[in-house]
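Entry for the shared binder. Reason: the reviewer on the internal report wants the predicted structure included alongside the sequence.
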Amino acid sequence: MAGVGAAELTQLQQGMTDQQKIMFVSQYGSEKKDRTVALILSLLVGVLGVDRFYVGDIALGVLKLLTFGVCGILAVIDWFLIMGRADDFNRNKAREIAAAIKPS
């Protein structure tokens, strides 16, 4: 699964003025999560749930923190899932920002 593509971002920007597009790109750029950072966090400190906190999954982050990744099992599973979760976070954040900026 690839990250949020330029086509998706362009589609979200349809109907926006140039100033709104600049606001969208600026805000999205500052709030998006990097897939590689998520994977590195998962590999290094995944048993503490830091990777899940990074992508906004607070409940699962707390679970992993309190149980040491359920004895490492969830940490290993997240090595394969966390990049997709970062993509989901970015996609949802882009939609949220676009909805806030777009005219009604």
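Summary line for the report: The radius of gyration is 16 Å.
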